[in-house]
Amino acid sequence: MASRLHSLLHHHLGKPARIISLVLTLSLLAAPAAAADPGDPGGSGSSVAPDSSTGSNPASSTEASPSGSSSGSSSARPSAIGTGAASGKGWRGVPVSSARASSQPCASLMFVGVRGSGEKAPYGTTITGIRDALASRWQGRGTVRQVWLDYQASDPLTLRNASMSSLLFDQTMPSTEYFDSAATGATRLSALLTSQSKRCPREWVVLAGFSQGAQAITEALARTDVSTRLAGAILAGNPDHHPGQNVQELSGTAPLNSIGLAALLYYLRGQVGDAGENRGAQVRTLIQTTIDVHKGSFDMSAARTDIADHQALIPATAYPGTFSICLAGDPVCDAAPAMARILTMQSTLDSELQSGLVVHRRYTPQVLRATLDAVAARANAVGAAASQGRPVPRGQTIGVQSGSWGRPQVLVAIGAGLVGLALGIAGGVLVGVRRSGRRRVPVERNLTD
Q: Structure pTM?
C-alpha cells in the first residue's frame, strides 16, 4: 500500500504540495451551509427544536455594525426566541453583537453563538437551530442573555488564492483570508469572555460554534481560561478536531481517530519543520506523514505540540463542559477518509465535495440531541441556583440530577481519544470503526444546599 501511495503521489499528483491543495480544497469548500439537504427532513434548514415554536431564521434589521466590524451584517436583525414556548421564556431577548455585549444587563448565563463560513449574521442556520433547541430545554429559572460574535467568517474559497507551498513549508504560517478570519474570531471571542467576566463576575457562559465558528471557539478556549465558568461549549463540524482532544463526544458518528482540516495542516507543518531545512527531506517527511495519517497512525505527543503551537489546543480544565460533534463523511472534521479515497483513485474531488456538503449540513438538533441534553442540564443547574439567590460559585463542579442525564456514567480520563479504535486499509480505502453509542460523561457531584 505504501509503495502504491508513493507512486500515486509522484505520478498522479505531481508536486507533493498538491496533497494539501486537495485536502484544503476538499475540506474547506464544505464549510458554507446555506441550505438544508432537501432529502433530510430534520436537516439544518430546520432550526426549530421539537418543542419550540420559534422562528428559524434571522430577519432583516437596521442594526448597524460596530466600527471596524467585518461581518457585513448591517442589515441583519437578530431573531428573538418566539414567545409561545413557555419553557424558553428566559431566552426571549434579541441577541446583540459582541461589540455591544456590555449594553446588556448581566444574567445567570451568557449564550454566545459563532456562525460558520459564509453564513449571515447573527447566528447562521446551524447555530440558530442549536440556540432554539437549548431554549426549548430551558426550565424558566434564572436569566439568559444572547450575544453573536461579530467577525468576518470568510468564505473558504479564498484559500484558492493561497500558496500551498508556503502553507506547508514556510517556517511561519502565511497570512490567508480564511485562517486570518478564524484567528480574528478567536481574538474577539477571547476579548469578549475576558471583559464580560470582569463586568459580570457571577455569570456563566454557553458557547456554540459551527465549522469556522467551532474553530474560533477552540482557539479562544486555548488562550482564555473560562473553565471555572463554562456551563457548556458545543463544537459542531470543527476543523480543529483531532484524536485525544479534551472534549466529550456524546453525538456524532465519525471514528475516534478522525482529524479535521486545520488540525491536520498544523500536524503536517510540524512534522515537515522537524525534518530540517533540506527541502528533499521535508518532501519525504510530508509524503510519509500523509501515508501514516491514511493508516490512522499519529504521533499523539507531536500532534498535540504542533496544535498547541498554533494556539488550538483545548486545555484539560475545559473538558467537563466542552462537547464536540463530528459526523463520519464530513471532510471538515474527518478529513482523512476523503483524502485516502482521492489519493487511491477510489473517488474524485467533485464526488467528495458533493457528498461532503450534504453531511456538513446535517448538524441538526436531532443529531445533537444527547449533546444538547447534557449542556441544557448544566445550564439549568446554573439557572436554578441563580434564581434561588445562590449562584454557582466559579470553579465549582456543576451538579445535575441523574434523571436529567439518565443512568450515571463513569468519568473517562481526560485526553483519552483512541479507546476502542480499530483502523485498517481495505481495498485502498481507509476504514474507521464508528462509535456505537459510546458516551463519555463525567460523574459530577450535586450542588450542596
A: 0.73
